[in-house]
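Appendix B, record 7
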Amino acid sequence: MYGSQHYGSQSHGQHGHSRPNSHTAPPVHHSGHGYQGGYRDHYQQQHGPPPGADPQLWQWFSAVASDRSGSISLTELQTALINGNWTSFDLDTVKMLMGIFDTDRSGTINYTEFAGLWKYISDWQNVFRHFDRDRSGSIEGRELAEALRSFGYNLSPPLLTLIEHKYASALSTGYGPPPGITFDRFVRACVVVKTLTEAFQRVDNDGDGWVQLNYEQFMSIVLSAP
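Structure tokens (predicted):
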């Protein structure tokens, strides 16, 4: 299964709202952290879940927060989030998620922020499973085009190829199609396309698909992308 996730553009929430169930893998790795058993019980006794907290989600949050801070750092979040092939999330994707859900800009994720992140990733899991037609655990070629088109982005073949190569899960050998895009990179690719499209639309005042930008505006748009 995939790690705990909810992606960056809230507009995609309509593609899935199911809550995790007993068949959904916890969004954490349980190795090498020293937060199992008695320590975790002690942590929960000391800090306790917030009122109305989902008990299972609170348990997972407590497991990820391996110190007594009651919050999750960037490194802890990366360790907690896994793809279907059991690889950790790409660091740039984790930074993107931190930027979206660290609403108080503390540099860490508290339980409330973690709950939002979990919901976001759970929704994206539904999207990913829907478009991973061949159940390969990655998104390739036509699957990518179909997914982006369903979001309203009708990109040209050269742009789709560029995205495939940029977000491929491994380096391309130059022969045959590029490697597929894993779940974490698929989320980031979709968020980047959404972010850049909306930035372009804000300066395309007459909606004709053409804009005139100076160097400062161009750099600002590109560097603001996740």
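Remarks on this record: Confidence is low (pLDDT under 50) at residues 1-45. The domain at 141-223 is CATH 1.10.238.10 (Recoverin; domain 1).
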